[in-house]
Design goal:
Strands 1-2-3 form a three-stranded antiparallel beta sheet, with no helix packed on it. The protein contains eleven helices and three strands, in the order H-H-H-H-H-E-E-E-H-H-H-H-H-H. It starts with a helix and ends in a 6-residue tail after the last helix. Helix content is 46%, strand content 5%. A hairpin with a 4-residue loop joins strand 1 (76-77) and strand 2. The chain has helices at residues 2-11, 15-20, 36-44, 49-61, 65-69, 100-113, 131-142, 154-166, 171-178, 183-186, 203-207, and strands at 76-77, 82-85, 94-97. It is globular and about 65 Å long. The chain is mainly α.
Length: 213
């Protein structure tokens, strides 16, 4: 009814009435996350190195699907141990820590695949991975696990945020790592985790224990 009336008022040129109508609020649902055992099972499921690396990278840095496919080789700095995410949601750049554990896997992947320009190339020459392809990778490898939760690719980002809060990272730092415009968006993770103050890091490092070089 709200949307119908809004459209009707606009047809009549009564835009002020249309604006005054109440906005519709979506149901607030807590994010579904994967626990540490489930993440280990998921990351060991793919037979292809590229699939293992891309799933682990999304979790290790809390990336959106669109962010990971837009990563270029030059965006990963192994010396400074950072990942530069460019012009993501809200047209903002941000830099997140590169996990030492993830760096080992990435270097192995780069030696094996030798990608050009894009960190994860698509099938066509010069193309990049698609978000549809990423979702397929997540969906197909979930089938190989015992995981029964209703999760998707974005659940890896939810898990990243929740695990960092559980490991003591403060929510203000987490907001910056996730690239949220408002702190209220980040605060939903407080419903599933507690926060303390620790140095920013990747939860992938503690997933497998001490990072190796």
């Amino acid at each position: 009814m709200v949307y119908g009336l809004r459209y009707y008022y606009r047809l009549l040129g009564m835009n002020k009435k249309a604006i005054a109508l109440p906005s519709l609020k979506r149901d607030t649902k807590l994010p579904v996350i994967l626990n540490r055992s489930e993440l280990k099972e998921l990351f060991s499921a793919p037979t292809l190195l590229k699939q293992r690396v891309v799933l682990a990278l999304i979790y290790s840095a809390g990336l959106r699907g669109q962010e990971v496919i837009n990563l270029k080789l030059s965006d990963v700095d192994f010396e400074r141990m950072t990942i530069h995410i460019r012009q993501s949601k809200y047209k903002k750049d941000r830099i997140v820590p590169l996990s030492p554990t993830m760096a080992v896997g990435l270097k192995k992947y780069l030696r094996a695949e030798n990608p050009h320009i894009w960190l994860f190339n698509g099938k066509a020459p010069g193309s990049k991975y698609s978000t549809r392809g990423l979702s397929w990778v997540m969906r197909e490898n979930l089938k190989k696990t015992s995981i029964t939760k209703e999760v998707n690719l974005h659940s890896l980002r939810h898990s990243y945020a929740t695990h960092l809060l559980e490991e003591g990272l403060n929510i203000v730092t987490l907001k910056e790592l996730l690239g949220h415009a408002e702190i209220t968006t980040t605060m939903i993770y407080l419903h599933v985790a507690q926060c303390q103050h620790v140095k920013p890091h990747s939860p992938l490092d503690t997933l497998y224990g001490k990072a190796t070089t």
